[in-house]
Amino acid sequence: ATQAAVAATDISKLPRVKQELVAPPAVPKHDQVAKGGPKVVQVRMETVEKLVEVAPGAKVWALTFNGSVPGPLIVVHEGDYVELTLSNPKESTLAHNVDFHAATGALGGAGLTLVQPGEEVVLRWKAVKPGVFVYHCAPGGTMIPFHVISGMNGAIMVLPRDGLKDAAGKPYQYDRAFYIGEQDFYLPQDEKGNFKEYASPAAGMHEMLELSKGLVPTHVVFNGAVGAITGDNALSAKVGEKVLFIHSQANRDSRPHLIGGHADLYWVGGSFSDTPLTSQETWWIPGGTAVAAAYEFHQPGLYVYLSHNLIEAVLLGAALHMNVEGEWNDDLMKQIKAPDSFDAKAAMDH
Amino acid sequence: ATQAAVAATDISKLPRVKQELVAPPAVPKHDQVAKGGPKVVQVRMETVEKLVEVAPGAKVWALTFNGSVPGPLIVVHEGDYVELTLSNPKESTLAHNVDFHAATGALGGAGLTLVQPGEEVVLRWKAVKPGVFVYHCAPGGTMIPFHVISGMNGAIMVLPRDGLKDAAGKPYQYDRAFYIGEQDFYLPQDEKGNFKEYASPAAGMHEMLELSKGLVPTHVVFNGAVGAITGDNALSAKVGEKVLFIHSQANRDSRPHLIGGHADLYWVGGSFSDTPLTSQETWWIPGGTAVAAAYEFHQPGLYVYLSHNLIEAVLLGAALHMNVEGEWNDDLMKQIKAPDSFDAKAAMDH
Amino acid sequence: ATQAAVAATDISKLPRVKQELVAPPAVPKHDQVAKGGPKVVQVRMETVEKLVEVAPGAKVWALTFNGSVPGPLIVVHEGDYVELTLSNPKESTLAHNVDFHAATGALGGAGLTLVQPGEEVVLRWKAVKPGVFVYHCAPGGTMIPFHVISGMNGAIMVLPRDGLKDAAGKPYQYDRAFYIGEQDFYLPQDEKGNFKEYASPAAGMHEMLELSKGLVPTHVVFNGAVGAITGDNALSAKVGEKVLFIHSQANRDSRPHLIGGHADLYWVGGSFSDTPLTSQETWWIPGGTAVAAAYEFHQPGLYVYLSHNLIEAVLLGAALHMNVEGEWNDDLMKQIKAPDSFDAKAAMDH
Ligand SMILES: [Cu+2]
Ligand SMILES: [Cu+2]
Ligand SMILES: [Cu+2]
Ligand SMILES: [Cu+2]
Ligand SMILES: [Cu+2]
Ligand SMILES: [Cu+2]
Ligand SMILES: [Mg+2]
Ligand SMILES: [Mg+2]
Ligand SMILES: [Mg+2]
Ligand SMILES: [Mg+2]
Ligand SMILES: [Mg+2]
Ligand SMILES: [Mg+2]
Ligand SMILES: [Mg+2]
Ligand SMILES: [Mg+2]
Ligand SMILES: [Mg+2]
């Protein structure tokens, strides 16, 4: 795809729309097929430092965009311009910026957006590549892994102007979309095995980075905490609905799986300009990538969406729940005989 | 692919066939192109708990399907129904079930198949997605990673009714097929470094799970033990034969490689509804996935098939041997000059 | 692709050309589209054992091909014959050989090339698979991981005779190519945390291998040392140029990312016979694989190419710099408002 320049005066004449960002796993309201030509999509993000509980007894100074881990999903169409206002409140203790993997040049914008506490910056960039992409804070040097493993990352979805296509090249419309941000945390423990709490983000930085060199996180979570998307917060859908799952991991590899379902479509690397793969049992996220997968639900009941390293899913936290309503389909699955005692000798003759 | 419901009365009229499951790396007898319409394929699996030696001096209470790690490969065609009888002998110490990644709903069947010691259950499900897929025990909570990393997993191959297709869309027939199940074990050691032996599966569970949180296995093996597929148990084939390698890893990422060969065809995620990749030196298995790769052998001799993290292959156990008979082809490779002493000065003038 | 045998007498009549190998990240001079028919491409490699500094205070006995980590890139076309002279100087302390993932049979040539100190061998093999492929030393048993994690690996590029094709099947010509070899090192430390220095390669082997079983490297570097491709050694290109990045990792998984850019094209597994993926933010290298990605630069400035596990990139060393000259394009990105202090109350009304 050519990335032909548009004169600056042209951009000034484009429609300007504000996008209200929402906390994950929700996604902002958007059209799947773009209405009209390119727009300037205005978004605001604030850098928020806050002490959050990742699991009972395990707290971290989360560095965030808009207060959530991950930050909010932004949605635009290919050819649109993103105009970001990034503000760092004066209560912050650190400088922050943003590197958009979807952007071109200046380290993804990181080189033009570093804001000290009390500062604000405005950056405009053109979305030239369709797909889902990570964004994250990248203030330089060891601050880069520190901010990212402290939660400072999110994703943007750049839809093709005419929407998604399935593996046969036919238009694909989803009924619901969810954004799942997976986060690896490296929380230092004291000699008794209790997680340490620090007075500020910087106070824990050295120990967290030293621990992180071992490359084994203490927690791997969806939406910032173990169990954040279960119970009342579980996702929901109905039989017959097509659901788009956008999943980002800004730092570490992951392998999403939907227990009892599949990826009917999976876009490798999250690229919407490639033909999606189909019928995937488990898919793949290289660290530093957002991907997308779609599934049409055929059975009601509880689904678990997780990273299929089951140690990470069950013991470290990388799992969420989803409730699907509808009619059970005996053709797809049926319990022919309920669990019952049996006669081993008779079974041998079977 | 639509997953149209078939009336239950119709299923009752379908042909019923029993499939004799065999121990890996063998695969059950099967047609590559389906004969006739959909069938109900009946299989029996028994949950077997047994103390096995993973490597000299390293024993584990293996939790298995049919006594092998991995469990047996099941082979059906798309549109067939799998009718599984799962029995848990009364000598067992734990409850077990099965989650088929190839199935739809009820947590892949796990929600309908939990059998206590002495119980039996029958589940029927329709194979709607073509490909190779993991199945594994998933009894809930921490029992899930415990049973899976104790060996309780296997795979099913759901062939397209008209067989496999190569990258050009032409029918592809294999001459042999092997099923390789890769298993990561996390075996606790005592203070002297000796692997600990426990009186029962449950006795070692807590320590094994604690160790597993570090995400580094003590052993990574094919067919349940270091060296299980070497020597007399090595695979074999002939020059000119096409061999299908089905490889599953139910929990942890892997990267198969055939030393001296390639994947002529590699189905990403094991999906047979996608065009296979070609000419792959090493391929990829996200944890929780079964994949397939095919190679036509062109040279005789010893081949090593391994996970190409060479530390895992050589030091942790993820390697097997294969002997190929036939005529050597000098065109493909020839030793022009055997190793011999040389004159370094002359070489410099070369 | 058929791999039809060519009579040995025919090979003797083919043109013979010597290829001068160069130290990475440079690549040898080559034609992208082959001129004429198949050739015998003669290359020489010497096994060199040398003590090198991976990072300040961290030395390793590097085992190398031609003195660099990674070894040099070889470039041929599909159907060409590689004729390698491998010499092991008598000053060496170990036997070495070479396993080409691009070759067929004899363990990729490893079975025919083992040279003791003071020996030389000549091996010819036919390049039948197009793509980029790892080669590495594989002397057997624990020597295999030891030599590979000590740096003894490189890559070969086998170009299609008619050159590369983009995702639409159109010819793709690159303006520059770079070869990045990523290396994981496992350097033992003493009780004070200082990296240990050994008198010879063999002296450190046991401790290095024991450490490696933990699967967590102490260093992950490009071109053999932390910061090897930064400052005066940084890569360079111009806006409008298409750059091919060949990246190998002989042992461990990696996830390349170009900060501020993308992979316009990414060949999975490095296979040039497959349609490349497009618009990738981050791509994937299974351990034991060389891959290729291409990008046309659109903005000037500093780029960082890294493994997007940011801990590995920043704390362990897997990053390089690239300087791109040209005109800034405001359409693609523009700082609308420089960082400045702001009034939080006004922002709320915004
Ligand atoms: Cu930040
Ligand atoms: Cu990044
Ligand atoms: Cu079980
Ligand atoms: Cu599973
Ligand atoms: Cu060597
Ligand atoms: Cu290899
Ligand atoms: Mg993406
Ligand atoms: Mg479906
Ligand atoms: Mg019961
Ligand atoms: Mg599969
Ligand atoms: Mg072949
Ligand atoms: Mg000799
Ligand atoms: Mg390759
Ligand atoms: Mg471009
Ligand atoms: Mg300032």
Report on the architecture of this protein.
The structure is a homotrimer of 350-residue chains. The termini of chain A are far apart. Chain A contains five helices and 22 strands. Chain A is mainly beta. In chain A, strands 13-12-15-19-17-18 form a six-stranded mixed β-sheet. In chain A, strands 1, 2, 3, 5 and 7 form a five-stranded mixed β-sheet that branches. In chain A, strands 4-9-8-6 form a four-stranded mixed β-sheet, with no helix packed on it. Chain A is flat, with a radius of gyration of 22 Å. Chains in contact: A-B, A-C, B-C. The interface between A and B is large, with 53 and 75 residues. Bound molecules: copper (II) ion (CU) (6 copies) and magnesium ion (9 copies). One magnesium ion is lined by residues 116, 119 of chain C. One copper (II) ion is lined by residues 63, 96, 137, 139, 147, 152 of chain C.
Report the end-to-end length of chain A measured between terminal Cα atoms: 63 Å
Oligomer: homotrimer
Gyration radius of chain A, in Å: 22 Å
Largest interface: A-B, 53 and 75 residues
Number of DSSP helices of chain A? 5
* Class by SSE composition of chain A: mainly beta
Q: How many DSSP-defined strands of chain A?
A: 22
Give the ordered list of helices and strands of chain A.
Answer: HEEEEEEEEHEEEEHEEEEEEEEHEEH
Largest sheet of chain A: 6 strands, mixed
Order of adjacent strands in the largest pleated sheet of chain A:
13-12-15-19-17-18
Low-confidence runs of at least 5 consecutive residues of chain A: 1-6
Beta-strand residue fraction of chain A: 35-45%
Bound molecules: copper (II) ion, magnesium ion
* Estimated helix fraction of chain A: 10-25%
Mean pLDDT of chain A: 96
